[in-house]
Amino acid sequence: MSVVYALVAASLFGCGLYMVLSRAVVRLVLGLSLVATAVNLMIFQAGRIRSEQPPIIPAGAKQLGESADPVPQALILTAIVIGFALTVMFAALALRSYRDRGTLVNEGAGPAEQLGDPFTGSVGDDR
Amino acid sequence: MIADTVADTMADGIAFWPVAIPLGAAAITTLLRRRPALQRGAMEAAVLLMLASSVWLLAHVAHAGIAGMAFGGWGAPFGVTFVADRLGAALTTVTSLVALAVAIYARAEIRARRRRAGFDPIFLAMLAAVNGAFLTGDIFNLYVWFELMLVVAMGLVTIDRRPAQIDGAIRYAAMSMLGATFILIGIGLLYGETGTLDMASISAALVGREPSMTLSAAAYLLFAGFALKAGLFPFFFWLPASYHTAPITASAALAGLLTKVGFYACLRVFVVVFHAVGEPAVPGLPALFTMVAVATMVLCVLAAIAQIDVRRLLAFHIICQVAYMMLGLALLSLLGITAAIFYMLHSMLVQAGLFLGAGAMGRATGGYDLRRAGGLMRERPLLAALFATLALSLSGVPPLSGFWAKFLVIDAAFRGGATWLGVTALVVGLLTLYSMSEIWTDAFWRSPPRPGKLTRAVPPAMVTAMALLAACTMGMGLAIGPVSGFARAAAVQMLTPTTTGQDASSPTAAPMLIPMKVDRWAP
After folding, report:
1. Nearest CA distance, B485 vs chain A (angstrom)
2. pLDDT tens digits for range A21-49
3. Rounded to two decimals, what is the model's pTM?
4. Closest to A46 (Cβ–Cβ): which among B158, B188, B241?
5. Composition of chain B by helix, strand, coil, percent to 5
6. Contact (Cβ atoms closer than 8 angstroms) between residue B82 and residue B514
């Protein structure tokens, strides 16, 4: 079971990284979400997924027997929320960029780096 | 009676005030969006309060030792704790000083339109995130502060919604999100290995641990993530592509604070958690630190020399300065870590000051292009003097703090037997001086490229803000004895294993938690 989870996480991560390498901003956003999902799965796995018992400590016992560790699940919940917020922010940036430039594909230096050329003496239009 | 209760409550949360004040003020300033004057007043009051609370924290920590705080009474191995040691308290204080200078400067540059766009709440939230990262004792909490920092930095960069800003923010966000992912995997692996997220507890669990695959993977991933945030080679390119697009007030705050948080995380995690000094549990890490530091230093100073836009030039210098701190860490000695701590304190002040200076220069000459600037020394002598102070401090000229910062790093390198590292640092220092003299000659010394073109007046708020930071670097340089003594004490405190000052004040809470099974990774 662990191997299956590991393989799923690895393939999600691989696909995510491949998409992050793209020049299209939408693929970048999707790729980053895939990577975040892969990481969440991985942390989930760090807490183990093998228990079928309810998480109740029997009287007298100090420790829950064969149980999953709850902390990673709390971590994942936090990470999902953060990842969601960042993805939304990023999507908003992508939308704005599309409205400004009419394209979602970044080719070469974008407006942030067009500040003039030191060799030809041309001056950028950035304020 | 009531006064006593209030004083007790305030003293209990001493480690949390530098985060709580800006966070609360961010909410208040959001409500005041339609009243720019009131909003500005609230922001400035919050920054002053934050300065007061962090100075109080610093005095308390220097006098009475580490101040800790456990949220909800959940003790160290399980709950989230705040731990203010000397390093954290000093960094918080310097953050507040930078924030004060930026708040003063904002009076001249941040007009009502940008305030309506939310400059004040975003700036305050950034300060809360930075202080939170400096004070937290929990590694997952550190990650959360990093993410908060990223979101607010994107807000600051895109505040005017110009195409260049959106483009810069996309580059920044893409790289930073990837870096945060690496940090998160590292934390997950570390948790799987040790069963706790509290940095002091992880540190205790890793004492004498054999090197293992998981541990190495966690360490390298964490380093990749933190190096990306700190702008180290090979992950530096997003920084000069995005920082300069923000309004210069915001750039100064980003330049002064954010990369240092990345380096701080490196320092804290590798020195305290992974015991990098002493017997390292992760092989190969010191060599990697050295390589990254040297490559960053040399490449970025050369890149800085080639720039013609003063903001981009300074952006490359930010990274170059972080490399000096990394060199101090790479030496893995008490002297090296002392030097890194001193360098961090110095660099936060000077980088922010130089960006503010670039903004004042841009205001006076009408642009940031060095080829179009000139004549400032004759017409704006005060601005020229302040800029020169900060630039000389960056390049390491005595008696300013930059000299001592470089001196401590290079001295630690020679004493540690790493002669070639010391020589590299010296050469890069010389190149930094050359690069600063380039700005000086172009913008200040020579006459304007078009004769008869007069410079515009610089608002007093801009000059005051620069003067504050220049006075700080001068003061740090003149009071080198106490300040470097403090940095050394902070380094000693980091290298001494402690129980993080988090007294086990919650004996009732601990047994309720499910004890961790250590052999969870056994087949």
Report:
1. 39
2. 888 888 889 999 999 999 988 888 776 65
3. 0.89
4. B188
5. 75, 0, 20
6. no
